[in-house]
Amino acid sequence: MELSTKVFGRLGRFWRSNKLQFGVYNKVAPAETTPSRIVPDHIVRPHYVTGQTLTIPHKPEIKDINQIMGMRQSCNLASSILTKVEQFIQPGVTTDEIDNVVHNLCIEAGAYPSPLHYHGFPKSVCTSVNNVAVHGIPDLRELLDGDIINVDITVFYKNYHGDCSKTFCVGNVDDPGKQLIAVTEECLEIAIKSCGPNVPFTEIGASICQHAKKSGFTVLPAFLGHGIGQYFHGPPDIYHSENDYPGVMKPGMTFTIEPVLSHGKEYTIILEDGWTVITEDGSRAAQIEHTILITENGAEVLT
Fold this sequence. Notes:
By secondary structure, the chain is of the alpha+beta class.
């Protein structure tokens, strides 16, 4: 799919005027892709694929020891796949090829790639390059030297979802791009350290926003973390900017923290495919994500 001429025309002014501020990189638009990949029949599917009913809790779930064990297994698998994917990220590789790698690693492990057919998403992983903030659909565009790419992996393994992502450099990335990734990683580290029993959920967004602003970057507020378990998304909502979300963390809760930062302004656009989200001003965006468990003493990173 190509970005419409209308959208390109409106955004071109931003991109040209902000080239020096945002660094040197290639703006990305969705390209032609391939059909969804096939999952063998023996792989257990999540409820949104089978059509079965799953009751998602209305408030943050406090998991028991068996549920936590399930989360540890799924999150460990997601993390291991993300680690393996890094070696395939280089100039000349297409994001569709990355999708193929992730898909096959999931199947080999006996897991279902959670994004596949979730509310119609056509691929097994999200790949977001440069000015694509989140939910990029893998396609046949080749990665270029100097790109940055977020790879967002979720697996459904033994009836539990594990979710993580990281932004990688493709070849030789300029200093503004490297700094964007570094500060995004710092924001996640600071947020995780702020977590613990009876800490308000609002502390996560406050700590991320403070560090991002101090470092000269913008948090994109439209994108939230979420509770996770046998369900892909559930309470609590995890804001990465200043907020007044109610409630406090309790031992046994599992949720994701996944800030998205950019060089530019906070505004984003959802493209016609219904998934790809780009920054309105063409600035690059970086994201990093972990699934964490609240413990009696603080927070444990599961991914």
